[in-house]
Design brief:
- Among the domains are: 200 residues, SGNH hydrolase (Rossmann fold, 3-Layer(aba) Sandwich), CATH 3.40.50.1110; 51 residues.
- The two termini are 39 Å apart.
- By secondary structure, the protein is α/β, with parallel strands linked by helices.
- The strands form three sheets. The chain has a five-stranded parallel β-sheet with strand order 2-1-3-4-5, with helices on both faces.
Length: 430
């Protein structure tokens, strides 16, 4: 993990700016400029809450990967609180028992898919959803959650969705109306809003236009594959105000002077080879470019441009140069390198993939326990406390065990994030 304190990070800015001016590297000015006040703070615990789509543990996993590996703030943690088949009213009934005991400081919600009843929209549906979402937000506020993001429901797949009471266009109209209601709740309650519906619809439309209607975001029409979940994660991360700046590495090819931004320590530079140790990762996608996993969605979603900028700037490079990163290389012009390239976008296969996957294994273990621990162990306690109050001491002990186990797994997730040493080579193209 990146152990640099906020104070140390700020103190680096004048040095970075001075070195930028010395090198004449104007593209670094953005990295050195003061950032707007962040939404996320060091030590935040982000609760990702929703129905069976959340319980799939995909967009919640992507959010945790981003928070812990890309590190928009220090020492972040995440948990998922998905519950299959749930409507917003279900969260109202269980939020105090299942969620607030973990003391999250940030929460995202994603409801509406089940609230719509898989039927054409009605005033009654919208009113019930608005009432429950308002109550859920108010309970989260009362429980001490500092930042709340109300996410709209997503979309159903335009080809694979099949239900007796509504076809895909009809139910997507219902979901769009629920999304409008979710936005209204967020505005009235003074909390943040994630346009999951709009982001997913735009991405699905672009993807199917390019690859055909048979390119599915959800095999069963409702529960997305990795491609749809990446769109969901994108919407929530944007709503959480992350800057998208993973880091910047700068080289003056002629003089040999180099620079790294916070989170990326330059270990050396010799004969065009830059050696770096990074504690902040670029986001790494899984699968194939033409698949229905996260990498398959990157052409139709500005994830790399908006959230995953790991920049390499090279001044005075050869007219045409090869950039080699890990086992892959690519040719760029001197002008392209002087302006800066996004390593994360240009090299989807890179030295961070293996450590990214290794850390993700710990995240999966954590989130798998959260489903079992919350649904099977913690949630029933609320009922037992009412029906058999004389067992309170036993319930307290069980609740403490679940909470401690969860905390241990979150600690293991953070410990799984290791510094990565890597090299970038710039050489004249033959």
């Amino acid at each position: 993990m990146n152990k640099t304190t906020p104070a140390c990070r700020v103190s680096l800015r004048p040095l970075l700016a001075a070195f930028v001016l010395a090198l004449g590297m104007a593209p670094f000015a953005r990295a050195a400029a003061p950032a707007a006040a962040p939404v996320l703070r060091s030590g935040d615990l982000v609760a990702v809450i929703g129905d069976s789509i959340t319980e799939q543990k995909l967009y919640s996993l992507y959010i945790e990967q981003y928070l812990l590996l890309c590190q928009p703030a220090e020492n972040l943690m995440a948990m998922q609180f998905g519950w299959s088949g749930e409507r917003a009213s279900g969260l109202v009934s269980r939020v105090n028992n299942d969620v607030l005991g973990f003391k999250p400081t940030v929460a995202t919600t994603c409801y509406g898919m089940n609230d719509g009843g898989y039927s054409p929209v009605s005033d009654g549906t919208l009113a019930a959803y608005k009432k429950s979402m308002t109550e859920a937000v108010q309970k989260l506020k009362a429980g001490g959650v500092r930042v709340i993001v109300v996410g709209s429901p997503g979309v159903v797949d335009s080809k694979s969705f099949k239900r007796p009471n509504a076809d895909a266009p009809t139910y997507n109209e219902t979901l769009a109306a629920l999304a409008k209601t979710a936005r209204e709740v967020a505005e009235v309650e003074g909390v943040r809003y994630a346009d999951v519906n709009g982001v997913m619809m735009e991405a699905m439309t672009k993807a199917k236009a390019a690859r055909g209607e048979g390119y599915l975001l959800a095999g069963d029409g409702v529960h997305p594959s990795g491609n749809g979940h990446l769109a969901m994660a994108y919407a929530f991360l944007k709503a959480l105000g992350v800057s998208g700046d993973i880091g910047t590495l700068g080289i003056d090819y002629a003089s040999g002077r180099v620079i790294g931004s916070p989170g990326h320590t330059v270990l050396g530079y010799e004969k065009g080879v830059l050696s770096v140790e990074s504690t902040r990762y670029p986001f790494c996608f899984t699968g194939k470019e033409d698949g229905n996993d996260s990498r398959g969605m990157t052409p139709y979603l500005p994830f790399n441009d908006d959230l995953n900028r790991f920049r390499l700037v090279v001044k005075n490079a050869p007219a045409r140069a090869l950039v080699t990163w890990g086992a892959n290389f690519k040719e760029f012009t001197a002008a392209e390198l002087a302006a800066g390239i996004n390593l994360a976008a240009e090299f989807p296969e890179n030295p961070f993939q293996a450590p990214f996957a290794a850390a993700t294994a710990a995240f999966r273990d954590q989130q798998n326990f959260e489903t079992a621990g919350i649904k099977n162990m913690l949630n029933p306690i609320g009922r037992w406390r009412i029906d058999v109050p004389e067992g309170a001491a036993h319930y307290d002990a069980l609740q403490a065990m679940v909470t401690a186990k969860s905390a241990a797994l979150r600690a293991a997730s953070r410990a799984a994030v290791k510094p990565v040493k890597h090299q970038i080579m710039i050489s004249p193209a033959s």
